[in-house]
Design goal:
Structural class: alpha+beta
Number of domains: 2
Number of strands: 12
Largest sheet: 6 strands, antiparallel
Helix content: 10-25%
Radius of gyration: 24 Å
């Protein structure tokens, strides 16, 4: 009787230990995610400046509607020796976690050549997904990324900031300094955004992580056009989905 009782106790203790180990592994995975990925984000380049369209009137040579733009370039590289290639990179679940004081945010995909990537971009993707297909070479216009690692991109545009008007026959530079002419400060246009990145390989395995960005680059008004490189992704947890 005592022997059977001992065996039962030993069984339940072993079961409890195994259960605790499994729970511990699950919790660790939730916190740390995948340790080794076949492909991961190596760098994000954020370029901030100002764009605008001039609609001259009889009263004003310059009648420019001002838009502050933030171009995101995401570098995805191979991080291990693998035969798997990139099948697609999906950006989705865009959320404005902190709104600017002025303007309206739109999310644009590239539609033109490298010299005018967003000239003809009109559709707002803020509540949609932007999907890059894995192909031989990068082609931002066609939403294609090299299947061995490449660059994907999109733009956050802060529109309806106001109109710069002038009747002086002067040369206008479309950059962040136009914002100061409207009396706009960096604190008024700062916002934060979060979105998910899903990397799917040719082996039909997907890894998902969430990116948080502070936009724009804080020196855009003083410098006109500013950039910032982000290379620390220790706070981004990728998990299999």
């Amino acid at each position: 009787m005592k022997k059977n009782l001992f065996k039962k106790c030993l069984f339940f203790i072993t079961l409890a230990v195994v259960f605790m180990i499994v729970i511990s592994i699950m919790i660790k995975y939730e916190v740390e995610g995948e340790k080794v990925l076949p492909y991961s984000i190596s760098k994000i380049l954020l370029v901030s400046t100002v764009d605008g369209k001039n609609n001259p009137t009889p009263e004003s040579i310059w009648n420019i509607g001002i838009t502050q733009v933030n171009d995101i370039y995401m570098y995805i590289d191979k991080t291990m020796d693998t035969k798997a290639t990139i099948e697609e990179v999906r950006f989705e679940n865009f959320v404005i976690t902190e709104s600017p004081e002025v303007g309206k945010i739109r999310l644009l995909r590239p539609t033109g050549e490298i010299s005018n990537l967003y000239t003809y971009s009109e559709q707002d993707y803020l509540d949609k997904s932007i999907v890059y297909r894995g192909e031989t070479l990068d082609d931002l216009k066609s939403l294609e990324i090299s299947n061995s690692g490449g660059i994907a991109g999109f733009r956050f545009a802060l529109e309806e900031l106001g109109t710069f008007t002038s009747n002086e026959n002067i040369e206008i530079t479309y950059d962040g300094k136009l914002l100061s002419n409207l009396g706009i400060t960096i604190d008024q246009i700062k916002f934060q955004v979060a979105f998910d990145v899903i990397i799917t390989t040719s082996e039909k395995v997907s890894f998902k992580g969430t990116i948080n960005l502070d936009v724009p680059v804080e020196t855009v008004i003083e410098e006109g056009s500013s950039s910032r490189e982000i290379t620390d992704f220790s706070n981004v947890v990728f998990k299999r989905i």
